[in-house]
Write a structure and sequence with these properties.
The chain is an alpha/beta fold and 421 residues long. It binds pyridoxal-5'-phosphate.
Length: 421
């Protein structure tokens, strides 16, 4: 045991799995081990890599920035990379007027929740309740856990999580139930709710569950007409995953708070961003110091991370990124159509570069044995896929080639035989 790694890995039951696979380098869609084994990263390393591993433009921007300015306190100080980044992001979401920096998807969500509740507080109303979607996932911090689905992931902390009103997930054909549930909650307690939080169009960790832009637009309208804030958590859907820069664009929805992370730096470095409307900012803007937004972490606005995010946006400006996503989307469509007819497949779903295959199984729960069994099979075939229970999904970097996509799908097709093993 002496040489056993002391590292406690995330979302990993060490008692059940062998040592972690060491990766020495990565380029484009491929991870490389010290022994030269090449593993195809079909899930963008937990949904973060957009243009590809090791993108030279972002790598160069990071190296250059590291030699000029590393980190400076962000309270009372600023720097050019953060200023340019904030302006560029706000130009992409022009309904938002202010950019608040943080460190991850969870922190972007925590900030949004605190801004929504805080804004009501400063406007003289005690609105502490949040509405969320069933099967939602917003991160693993306490506020983010509270608004996320309750279950295996957060069972030990259940009693510590604040109460949230939960809307039924809008299954196809059942959208009206979700709409009614939102309207009923807002009518029942008209002055209780601060905000609705949701993942627009695709619920990621919930199983790549999709719903329509029409429904999203309808929920946003109801929020508007009842005067509560809409928080769009685009931590996963942002930066092209659903086929548009942000998923909200497909429904013409303009949230009051937009949470971003993951693809914000092209997946190179951790960064969270909460974009806020003028109305929210105004609620905190006062000569009264008690109305300050008292939130930060030490590395807020880090200059190297900001340079990476800026370089990511430059790639969006100078390269045909949406066309690459459209090509991946078309490829998904063809291969999913073939899978759909297999008796092992219950349903296929797709939104832009995200494809999901839900398998017909007796126990599709996250803790069922199927997920790890499939994952082992994919790795034996040098493909990184991490099924969510009985949902196998492909969420590749945008540089993934048609040949690589075919390899991923060929191995998925082979794996269907393992379903009942
Ligand atoms: C929609 C959504 N929100 C928030 C998060 C949390 O992000 P992070 O893991 O960076 O804290 C995730 C992570 O997967 C996510 O998918």
């Amino acid at each position: 045991m002496a040489d056993r790694s002391p590292i406690w890995h995330p979302f990993t039951q060490a008692a059940l799995v062998g040592p972690a696979i060491e990766i020495e380098s990565a380029r484009d869609s491929t991870l490389v081990t010290p022994g030269g084994r090449r593993i195809l990263d079909a899930i963008s390393s937990w949904w973060v890599i957009t243009h590809g591993h090791g993108n030279p433009h972002i790598a160069r921007a990071i190296a250059e920035q590291a030699g000029v300015l590393d980190q400076v306190i962000f309270a009372g100080f600023t720097h050019e990379k953060a200023e340019r980044l904030a302006r560029k992001l706000l130009a992409l979401a022009p309904y938002a007027k202010h950019a608040f920096f943080s460190d991850s998807g969870s922190t972007a969500v925590e900030v949004a929740l605190k801004m929504a509740v805080g804004a009501w507080h400063h406007r003289g109303q005690r609105r502490h309740k949040i509405i969320a979607l069933e099967h939602g996932y917003h991160g693993d911090m306490f506020g983010a856990m509270a608004v996320g689905n309750r279950g295996t992931f957060n069972a030990p902390y259940e009693n510590m999580l604040f109460d949230v009103a939960r809307l039924p997930f809008p299954v196809a054909g059942g959208e009206q139930h979700t709409i009614d549930a939102l309207e009923n909650a807002l009518r029942r307690e008209p002055n209780a709710f601060a905000a609705l939080i949701l993942e627009p169009l695709v619920l990621g960790a919930g199983g790549m569950l999709t719903y329509t832009p029409n429904l999203l637009a309808e929920l946003a309208n109801i929020c508007r007409s009842h005067g509560i804030f809409l928080i769009a958590d685009e931590v996963m859907t942002g930066f092209g995953r659903t086929g548009t820069m942000f998923a909200c664009e497909q429904a013409n929805v303009t949230p009051d708070l937009l949470c971003l992370s993951k693809g914000l730096t092209g997946g190179f470095l951790p960064m969270g961003m909460t974009l806020a409307s003028e109305e929210i900012y105004e609620a905190f803007y006062a000569e009264d110091r008690a109305r300050t937004f008292f939130h930060s972490s030490s590395f807020t606005g880090n200059a190297i991370t900001s340079a990476a995010a800026l370089a990511n946006l430059e790639i969006w400006e100078s390269e045909p990124v949406l066309a690459r996503i459209a090509a991946i989307s078309a490829h998904h469509k063809t291969r999913l159509a073939a899978l759909q007819s297999r008796r092992e497949v219950a349903e296929t779903r797709q939104m832009g570069s995200i494809a999901a295959i839900e398998l017909n199984v007796a126990d599709g729960g996250y803790l069922a044995g199927l997920g790890p069994r499939l994952q082992r099979f994919y790795l034996e075939n040098d493909i990184l896929l991490r099924p969510l229970g009985n949902v196998v999904y492909v969420l590749p970097p945008y540089c993934t080639t048609p040949t690589e996509l075919d390899r991923i799908y060929d191995v998925i097709e082979e794996s269907l035989e393992l379903r009942e093993a």
